[in-house]
Amino acid sequence: MFRHTFLRYAVLALLAAAALLRALTAGYFGLEILAEILILAILVLALDMVAGFGGMVSLCHGALMGLGAYAYGVLCVHAGLAPLPALAGAIALTGAVAWAIGAICARAHGIFFIMATLAFGQMAYSWVFETPLLGGDDGLGGIPRPDLSLLGIDLSDSRSFVLFCLAATALAYGAAVLVLRSGLGRSLGGVMHNEQRMRALGLTVWRVKADVFGLSGMLAGLAGALAAMQVMYISPGLLAWTTSGEALVVVILGGLGTLVGPLVGAAAFVTLKHGLSGVTSHWHLVVGLILIAVVMSRANGLFGWLEARWGARLDRRLADATREDTPREATNDA
Amino acid sequence: EDPVRVGLLLPFSGVYAALGNDIEAGFDLGLETFAPDSGFEVIREDTEVKPPVALAKTRKLILQDKVDVIAGVVSSGVLGAVRDAVHGAGVPLIVANAGNDDATGSACSPWITRMSFSNGQVNRPMGQWLHDQGITRVFTLAPDYAGGRQMIGGFVEGFTAAGGEIAGQEFTPFQKTQDFGPYLAKAKASGAQAVYVFYAGSEAISFVKQYDSFGMKAELPLYGSGFLTSPLYVNAEGPAAAGVVTALHYVPTIDTEENRAFVTAFEARTGRLPSEYAVQGYDSARALVEAAATGARGRAGLGEALRQVQFTGPRGQTSIDPATNNIVQPIYVYETVQGDDGMTQKILAELPARPDAANGCEMAPVAN
Amino acid sequence: MLETRDLTKSFGAMQVTRGVSLRLERGERRVILGPNGAGKTTLFNLLAGELAPDSGAVLLAGEDITALPVARRARRGLSRSYQKNTLFDGLSVEENLGLAAAVHCGQGMRLWGDSLARPEVREIVAEVAEMVQLVPHLHARVSEVSYGVRRQLEVGVALATRPSVLLMDEPTSGVGPEMARGFHRLLADLPRSLTLLIIEHDMDLAFDVADTITVLNYGEVVFDGLPEAARGSRLLQEIYMGDWSDA
Amino acid sequence: MTTDPGFWLLQTLNALQLSMLLFLLSIGLTVIFGLMHFVNLAHGALYAAGAYVAASVSAVAGFWAGLVLAPLAVAVIGVLLYGGLIRRMRRSGPMAQVLVTFGLIFVALDLTRLIWGDIALASAMPPLLEGRLSVLGIDYPLYRLFVIGLGLVVFAALAFVLGRTQIGAMIRAGVDNDAMAACLGINVERLFFIVFCLGCALAGLAGAVAAPLLSVSPDMGLQILIPTLIVIVIGGLGSLQGAIAGSLVYGFVQTFGAVLAPGLASVLIYGLLAAILVIRPTGLFPAKG
Amino acid sequence: MLELEQLCAGYGETQVLHGLSVQAAPGRVLALLGRNGAGKSTTLKTVMGLLPVRAGQVRFRGAPMPRQPHDIARAGIAYVPETRDIFPSLSVRENLELTARRFRGDWTLERVLTLFPRLGERLDNGGTQLSGGEQQMLAMARALLMNPRLLILDEPTEGLAPIIVQQLHDSLQALKRAGLSMLIVEQNFGFATALADDVAVVGRGQVVWTGSAAAIRADTGVQHQWLGV
Ligand SMILES: Nc1ncnc2c1ncn2[C@@H]1O[C@H](COP(=O)(O)OP(=O)(O)OP(=O)(O)O)[C@@H](O)[C@H]1O
Ligand SMILES: Nc1ncnc2c1ncn2[C@@H]1O[C@H](COP(=O)(O)OP(=O)(O)OP(=O)(O)O)[C@@H](O)[C@H]1O
Ligand SMILES: [Mg+2]
Ligand SMILES: [Mg+2]
Q1: pTM, to two decimals
Q2: A4 Ramachandran zone, left/alpha/beta (phi>0; psi -120 to 50)
Q3: How large is the ipTM?
Q4: Are C and D close enough to touch, i.e. 3+ CB pairs under 8 angstroms?
Q5: D39 is in which domain, residue-wise?
Q6: What is the set of domains in chain E, with CATH numbers?
Q7: Fewer CB atoms inside 10 Å of the end CB: C or N, chain D?
Q8: Where are the transmembrane segments (chain A) (predicted)?
Q9: E174: Cβ–Cβ under 8 A, 6 or more apart, which residues?
C-alpha cells in the first residue's frame, strides 16, 4: 500500500517542475537525456511496483521493456499498424507476457524469484537475438513516432517528444499509485509481509502476484515502446539482463518501495552517467563508488534518506496543524 | 579557415574498448602524419557498444556539435542504429570497423563510406585459396550472430564455388560459450579435412587455446578469418596459435615501404604492434585528410570527396567502390608462427583486391 | 460441519497422523489435548490444507474438500489461528484485521479504491477489535505491541474472515493469567453458530469451554468424549495431565 | 549423430570439466551467499581478479606459483572487502547488498582495465599438464582432467568440513540465527570473516584454474556471473550438494545441448532453470530448514 | 551473582526499561514476574548483550558484564529465549552437540536425554521439524549442556503439556538442589512461585516489588495489581 506524504508530494512537484522547465529550455542533447530519464522513470516505476510493494524483485523488466519495444516496432514496421494502435498492442502484449511470467514464478521467493525472472528474460533475449524477422543482432530500424498532427503536435521534434514522454510518465505514475492503493495493492502488501497467512485468509496468492506483475509489465511495455520511438531503432541489447540490473540499481538507489524515490534515482543516475562519461571512459568506476557510498549511508536510497531525515517531522508538523478536522490515521508506508 | 569538425564515435568502455582504443590510436596517428598542421577538430564520444547510446551520441554530434563528418563505429549493431540518422541528416560517416555486409549492400548510403572491410570480403577469397591447397571437406564454426553468419557465409560461398564441400556447420551462442570442447568433438567426428572458423576477441583466445589443448591441429588443421589470430590477441594465445592459417586485410608483417613506416610510427607511439583495427583508424584519418585536401568542405562536399579517395597505404592499394562505397583492398593469407619475441605472422599469399557484389545497393549521388 | 475420515500423514518414516476420524457438529466446541509432538498442529495443517494427507478425506459441511488448496478452504468458511504468531508484522493492528476482512468481503482483487476503506470491511474490523479487546492497540504496528497483544491479534485475524469453522492452535500460550481470562470470556461470547476446534494446554480453559474432548497420542485418537469422562480418564492422566486434576 | 562411444565419452568428460569449473566458482558463492545470506554479486569480479593475478604471476614464476598465490591474493581482497564493506552490510538486507556488490562490479571492472588494460592476457598451461592422457581409448587433455580432479577434491574436503565437523555445525548455526548462536558462545563475527575469506579464496582458485582455459579479459567476471547464479539456484542455496548438483546439471545440459540441439543451446539452460524453479521453487537441494 | 543497577534499554526509539534494578543471588532461583509487555524479556535480552545498555549497569559475579553475547555465554550464562530459536539447518543431535562439545562439565548428552527422553527419539530430525513443546525441551537441553553458572529461562512452560510441565518442574528443582543459579521469567504463577526463592515483579520497565516467593503467594494485593492473577 502506498501513501502520499507531504514530502512525497513536495518532491514530486519539484521533479515535475524541473522536468517541465528542462523540456522547455534544454538544448538538443539535454532533451535527449531528459527523454532517457523519463523512459527509465517509467521502467523503474514498474519495477518498484513489484519489487518495492510486493517483494518480487524482478530481473526481467529490461526484457519486458525490450519486448514492448519490439512489439511496437514489429507492429509498426512489419504489420503496418499505425503507431497509436501499435502502442496499445505493445502494452497489452507485454502485460500478457508479464502476467504469465508472474503466474509461473509466483511460487518462488527471494533470490529464486530473481533467478526465475532472469531465466525468462534471458529466454526472451536469446529468442529476439536469434530471430531473423526481428533483425537479430543488427536490430530493427525505421520505427515511426506517433502522428499527433491532429492535435497540432509534431513528435519528430525533440521538444514535443519529450513533453509526450513527460505526459506518459505522469500517467504511468498515476496508474501505479491507483493500483497500489486499490484492494489489489492492499492484498499485495499483505502477501509481501506474510504470504502464508494471506493464503489462509482465503486469498489466491498467485493471482494477486500475477495481476500486479502483469500491470507492472504493461508499464514496462509502455517504456519500451517509448524507447523504440525515441531511438527509432531497436536492438536486442535492450532485453539484456544488464538493463534489468541497471533498473534495479536505480530503484534501490532512489529508494525501494517509495515510488517517488525511483524517479529521483532515474534522474540522478542518468544525469550522473552522462556527466561522467563525457569526462572519463572509466565512469563505471565513479558510478560504482557513488553507489557504494549511498548504500553504506544505510538509508533506503536517496529518497529514503530524505524521508528518514525530514519525512516524519514534516508530517507531524502538518498533522499538528490539521489535527482538528481530520481523524488520526496510522501512518506507515508500503 | 575553420577547422573540419570530426566526430569520433568509438567504444571506449564495454567489451570492445580494446578495439576502440586501437582505432583511436591509429586515427590520431593518421591525422598527425597526413595533416601535421592540423585543420581538424576531433570530438570523441563513447558508444559503450550500446546502440541506443551510440545513436544519442550521434544525434548530439550532428545536431549540437554540428560536425562535418563522423568516423568510427566498431559494432554492426551500432552501425545499424546510426545508419538512418547519418543518412537522413546528410552527414558523411567513415566506418572504421563494423563489417556488416548490408551496410554496403541493401542498406547502403552515399553518406556512408567504409574504410575497414566487409564480412564477406575478408572470407570469400579464402574459400578458393583453401580449395587450391587441396582441401575439399571443411567443418565451420562461428558465433551465432549476424556477423558470424556473414563471415562464414562469405567463406562457404567461395569454397563451394571452388568445388569444396561443407562437412558440417555449427554456430555457438554468442559470447556465452565458455567451453568449445563439445563443438570440437563434433568437428572431429564430422570427417572433415580442416576446420574453418570465425571468432574474435575473448572467444578467439579461448577457442584457439582449447583447440590446441585437444591436440587437433595436427590431424585437423585450423583455418579461419584473420581476426582469430589478430595481433591484438595473438600473444594471449601464445604457442597455441602456431600453425593456424587465416586471412585478413592487414597484418603488421606486410613487407612494403608504407607499412614499415606505419608500424614503426605506431610502435613508437603505443609500444605495441598495430592491429588491423589500428590500420583502419589510420586509413580512415588518411581518407579524411585526402578528401579535405581536394578543397572539399562541408558535409556534402566531404561526402562526395570521400568516395573518390584512393591511395596506397600500409595494406596496399586501397580504393572505394563507387557502386557500394565499400573499400576495395587485397586480402592476405598468413600463418601464425613463433617469432623471436612472441608470435608473428608469415604471409603465405596476397589475394588480389576485388570489389564485393552490390548486394542490392543502389547508390544515389550525394545530394544536398 | 467438519469431518475427517481416516486421515494419515507421515514425515519420512515417522507417522504423525494415524487414521484420525473426527466429526464436529455445527456449533460444537471441541478441545484437542495431547502431549507435545502428538500431532495436533499437524492435524490442523491437514484440515486447513497446508499439508496434504497421505490418505483419508476432509469434509466441510458435507462436501469433500481434501483436494482444495488453502485459500479455497478459507473462502468456504474454514479459518485458523497459528500456534506461532503468523501476522503482518510491518502493518498496524487495524490493517491486519482489515486485510482479513477485505479478503472475506471479496475486496482482495479489486483494482479500484482502497479495500480497507470499504464500510463493510470497517464494520468487521471494528466488531472484531471489540471482541478480542484490541481497540486500544488498533493504530500500533504489530512489531510494537507485546506478545500477549499479538496472541489476541492472531485470533482476531482468524475471526475477521467471519468463519463458520474456526481452528485455534493454543490461543493462550504465552499470555498472562489476565489475558487468559480474556480469552476465556471471548470464547464464551463467540456466537454459538460457530464451530470451534481448539488445541489447548491450559486445562482450566479447556474443560471450561469444551463440549467434547479429543485426545491425540502419537498421532492416534486415544480418547473422544465428554469433559467429565476425560477428567476421570486414567489414560489421560498418565500420558498428558499428570496430577493436574489434583492440584 | 555418431554412434562412436568414444565421442560420447569425450562429451561426458567435457561436461564434467565444465561442471567442475563452475563448481569451483559456485561453491565459493554458495558458501557466502547461502550460508551468510549475503548476496555477493561481485563474486565474478573476484574470480576475474584471481585469473588476472594467476596470469601475472605465472608469467614470471610459473603456473603453480600462480595457482597458489591467486587464491591467497583474492583472500586478501576478501579481508579488505570484509573489513571495509561487508561487515557493515551483513544486517542490511539483500537489496542493499545487491546494490553494494553491483557497485563493486563496476569498480572492479574499471580497476582491472586500469591495471591490466583492455587487451586480454596470456596464461600458459603448466608443462606438466600440457599433454593428453588416453582415457578408455580417447585422448583427453591432461589439464581438463586436472580441473575435474581438483573440483572433486575441493568438493570432498568441503563436504567433510561442513557436514562432519563442529566448525561446519557452528557455521550453519550462525547462519540460521546469529544472535542465538552468539548466546551459545560462538564468535559469529569471526566465523563469518573466515567463511567470507574462504569463499573469496575459492573464487580466486577458480580464476586461476580457468585462466589457461579461457581468455583473461576484463569482462570475464561479468560473463561468468549469470552461469554461476544459475548453478547455485538450480542446486538450492547454501548446500554443498546443491552446488555440485547444479554444476553437473549446468555442465551436462550445456554440453549435450550443444551436441544434440545446437539451435536451442542458448535457451536450453534458461528453460531448464525456469522449469526447475516452477516445480521446486527452492532448487533441487535446498539447505535444511 | 547477577546485579542489574538502574538499567535502561529498549528498541530503536522506544525505551522499555526505565532504571530497572534487581539482584540474583548465587545458588538461588529468581523469578521475574509481570504482565505481558512489562519488559521481562527485554531485561533478559539486555543481560545477554542482545540489546545495548543505554544507562545503568549489569554486573556478573562482581565484575562488569562483557558486551558481546559470545563472551557473556563463555562467562557462564546460558539463555533460553521465549522464541526457543532452534537452528533449522541442524539436526536435533547437532543442535545439542553444538554446546555439548564446547562446554564440558556435569551435564552430558546422556544426562539431558534422560531428562527429556522425547528428544532421544528425535535425534536425527531437523531442528524445526519438532513440535512446539519438543523445541522447548531442545532449547533447555542445549542450554544445560553449556554447564552454566547461571541459567536464564524465558517462559519455559509455554506450550508444554501439563505432564511435561510437571517433569520440568521436577528437573528444575533438581538443578536448583544441585546449586545452579537461575533467573526465570514465567507467566505460570503457580509454577514460578513453587520453583523460585525470590521474586521480582516488573511493571512498566521497573521493578515494583521484590520479596520471597512465599511472600508473594500470600500477597494477593500485589498479585492482583501487578500480575492480574
Ligand atoms: N515438516 C515436518 N517434518 C518432519 N517432522 C515433522 C514436521 N512437522 C512436524 N513433525 C513432527 O511431527 C510430530 C507432531 O508435530 P506437531 O507439531 O503436530 O505436534 P503438536 O501435537 O502440535 O505438539 P505441541 O503441543 O508441542 O505443539 C512432531 O514429533 C514433529 O517432530
Ligand atoms: N523488537 C521490538 N521492537 C520494538 N518494541 C518492542 C520489541 N519487542 C518488544 N517491544 C516492546 O517492548 C515492551 C516490552 O516487551 P517484552 O517482550 O520485554 O515484554 P514481556 O514482559 O516479556 O512480555 P510477554 O510476557 O508478553 O513476553 C512491549 O511493550 C513491546 O511492545
Ligand atoms: Mg503444536
Ligand atoms: Mg516476554
Answers
A1: 0.88
A2: beta
A3: 0.86
A4: no
A5: 24-121+138-279
A6: 1-76+175-228 (3.40.50.300)
A7: N
A8: 35-56, 63-81, 87-104, 111-129, 161-180, 212-235, 247-271, 283-306
A9: none
